[in-house]
Specification:
The chain has helices spanning 21-24, 30-43, 103-119, 136-145, 162-168, 184-189, 197-206, and strands spanning 2-6, 12-18, 123-126, 153-157, 174-178, 192-196. The protein is built from seven helices and six strands. The mean pLDDT is 93. It is α/β, with parallel strands linked by helices. This is Large ribosomal subunit protein uL4.
């Protein structure tokens, strides 16, 4: 697949670039995508949920009423789960939800997600650029000139550019990342992927 290389000001450079079929035109593996997205979301969970059970709450341990003769069920402690303010039965406890995935499977998932975006024509290639200063207006102007101000965008840089990253971090529906940090969830979440020209060569080397 060939794409025109655009300037960040929206102008066509007159040059074209070919996307690697080994990355952007494979047979998608939906299950690999599912596992990779599931892992990212699971690893992001804090797992700090906790409720107090009957042994952990404060309260008197005296017997509430006599064992027999009341006509109701026996009760031995105000901390019983059946009473208001009592401990919770089998409440949530801190848990680590993270799990590991094979590196090759994660690579297949990313290539599958990129293939879907390529087929849906949701990929643009930009000529290498930078901003002279950290300014949100620089980034919003770029999105406006590319007619992407109303879409969720993911800009993929070959390496960290502080001015670009800081200029785009406070803009809604906009994310800036590098090839090394590219993940399946972010690719699928974006309406349009913006690859800086130098990132394409780097991503081909990453998936060799």
């Amino acid at each position: 697949m060939e794409l025109s290389i655009l300037k960040h000001t929206g102008e066509d450079t007159g040059r074209k670039v070919s996307l690697s079929d080994a990355i952007f035109d494979i047979e998608p593996n939906d299950h690999a995508i599912y596992l990779d997205v599931k892992q990212k979301m699971a690893n992001a969970r804090q797992g700090t949920h906790k409720s107090k059970e009957r042994a952990e709450i404060s309260g008197s341990t005296r017997k509430i009423k006599k064992q027999k003769g009341t006509g109701t069920a026996r009760a031995g402690s105000i901390k019983s789960p059946i009473f208001k303010g009592g401990g919770r039965v089998f409440g949530p406890r801190p848990k680590d939800y993270s799990f590991k995935l094979n590196k090759k499977l994660k690579a297949v998932a990313r290539k599958s997600a990129l293939t879907y975006k390529a087929k849906d024509q949701m990929i643009s290639v930009l000529e290498g650029f930078t901003f002279n200063e950290v300014k949100t207006k620089n980034y919003t102007d770029m999105l406006n000139k590319l007619s992407l101000d109303s879409k969720k965008t993911l800009l993929v840089l070959p390496e960290v550019d502080k001015n670009i990253v800081l200029s785009g971090r406070n803009i809604k529906n906009t994310q800036v990342t590098t090839v090394d940090s590219l993940n399946t969830y972010d690719v699928l979440h974006a309406d349009q992927l913006l690859f800086v020209e130098g990132s394409l060569e780097k991503i081909e080397n990453l998936f060799k």
